[in-house]
């Protein structure tokens, strides 16, 4: 029996990278997964891969910054699977502009996805989950932050701002749902540098080769390498499962020791 047997999970940014590895792992562990991504093609590719492996899935292209899309994804999830037990806000965007060169358009785009998207995901998760019976295991909200939620780095000031915001907002969600008596937990997940298209794009923006970055990682990261997406997905699995039933309002860092120095 899988670690998420009988649970339904909505996961954004699920078309690639950490999000896709997470939906694949969750499905393998018995969850019904709702695959959400702004790219319809990525959603369909992920859906086909998971259902071909006999996983239970629903494909739902969406823009996390549009509140109507959140209404739709919960409505479809409830119609197909009955209730939602886990929401993982994984969709995110980055930018490598120096602060002095950051335009208002860049600021708006990064904040819209990384902050507004997480806010809307949490809002609609709470609206759906707040009447969850007390005799059921708690529902789980997982907000994907970053090591940038702990420490500052050059050329990613706005990204860092948003990821720090995700970290503290997750704590506020956890405190509020507890005070209101809702059977919900909320935690933030903090990946370090991970082998994903988004991370590779950030290197390209900075004209840094993968080989050169590997040397930087060896000096800065205690494990001397980037993470594989599945390694982050296993952290999400723990937060989604009842194994983390005594964990709320805090962070899970999977950063290879990056923030330890």
UniProtKB/TrEMBL annotation:
UniProt organism field: Sneathiella sedimenti
Family recorded in the similarity comment: Belongs to the short-chain dehydrogenases/reductases (SDR) family.
Taxonomy of the source species: Bacteria, Pseudomonadati, Pseudomonadota, Alphaproteobacteria, Sneathiellales
Gene3D superfamilies: NAD(P)-binding Rossmann-like Domain
InterPro entries reported for this sequence: NAD(P)-bd_dom_sf, Sc_DH/Rdtase_CS, SDR_fam
Top-level taxon of origin: Bacteria
Keyword Ubl conjugation: no
The UniProt record lists the keyword Oxidoreductase: yes
Record Pfam families: adh_short_C2
Protein name: SDR family oxidoreductase
Keywords: Oxidoreductase
